[in-house]
Design a protein that fits this description.
The protein is mainly alpha-helical and 295 residues long. Helices cover 57% and strands 3% of the residues. The chain has two domains: 2-64, no CATH class; 66-295, no CATH class. Strands 1-2 form a two-stranded parallel sheet. Helix 11 packs antiparallel against helix 12 (223-239). Residues 258-269 have a biased composition (Polar residues).
């Protein structure tokens, strides 16, 4: 691994004819001062070897990749909560979890599309979303890649409930499929949906913070300011309760303190100035009395 890193630097200085620009290579090696990696022990050992080799005389700082560390920091506490972990397994990670079942079945996707159109015809929007969505693409090993599918689940809650009801009563499905659909429908209760919405907003906020570091050459001098802003934003949303506030109609100074970059009116939310939690709360407060859709 150490040799491959050195070879890569050499290849970067090789022209199309195969000749290595020795002056550029020497300049490049002299300017390598920092090696960042994930927590893989092999990579860390390779970094220590690079720091002692003559080719990189100025490499002085070995560290973990901050973006990787932030991902661990915001996902591990969630998975330590039994209720969340159970919900995670039912929606994403478990065998025949709901979202993979929809993603991997053309029948389920087409029926969900039809259910969305029925919801739009009757209500004009799906928790503020005024169009249909078909894709639920996500990569299970990457926790942060589920933020968008989780948001879609929250916004399409009426359509997904109709889909599960359709699958549960369709006699053409085998008993196992009908049973899974029935269980998924039964689990779409207020506390479970509200927990999912809170998780979606929390994950979205963490991803905004993560993107500061998940790029080339972030400004280290701004990290304390960014961290303070992130902590203040989470406190405003999840401790002070603005996760349930209409951020578009909040006053210029908020209920407390002077106007700041984290005041309610400046919060960036996903749908029409409202958080996903507020959207789901409104859906729970105004449930459909009967499933009289024809799809």
């Amino acid at each position: 691994m150490t040799s491959s890193v050195l070879d890569l630097l050499t290849e970067a200085c090789r022209d199309p004819e195969g000749k290595v620009d020795s002056e550029a290579l020497q300049h490049l090696r002299a300017h390598v001062r920092h090696c960042a990696s994930d927590q893989c022990p092999t990579v860390q050992k390779s970094g220590k070897q690079l720091a002692t080799c003559a080719e990189l005389p100025n490499l002085a700082w070995l560290s973990y990749d901050p973006a990787h560390q932030i991902r661990i920091a915001f996902q591990d506490p969630l998975h330590a909560v039994p209720d969340f972990n159970e919900q995670w397994q039912l929606l994403f990670a478990g065998r025949h979890a709901l979202i993979p079942d929809i993603k991997n079945s053309e029948v389920w996707k087409n029926r969900l599309l039809a259910a969305q159109k029925a919801v739009l015809d009757k209500h004009g929007s799906q928790a503020g979303l005024e169009k249909t969505m078909r894709a639920f693409s996500f990569a299970q090993p990457r926790f942060d890649s589920t933020a968008t599918p989780m948001m879609k689940y929250c916004l399409l809650v009426r359509a997904i409930a109709i889909l599960c009801a359709m699958q549960a009563v369709d006699e053409r499905n085998n008993k196992e499929i009908r049973h899974r659909a029935e269980l998924a429908l039964q689990r779409m209760q207020g506390p479970s949906l509200f927990r999912c919405a809170l998780t979606c907003d929390y994950t979205s906020e963490c991803l905004r913070f993560l993107r500061v570091f998940d790029k080339e050459d972030p400004d280290a001098a701004k990290i304390p300011e960014i961290l303070d802003s992130f902590c203040a934003r989470l406190k405003l949303l999840f401790v002070d309760g603005y996760i349930l506030a209409d951020t578009c109609s909040a006053g210029p100074s908020g209920p407390q303190g002077p106007r700041s970059s984290t005041s309610p009116q400046t919060l960036q939310t996903d749908v029409d100035g409202k958080t996903i939690t507020q959207r789901v709360y409104e859906e729970i407060e105004t449930p459909e009395p009967t499933l009289d859709y024809t799809v």
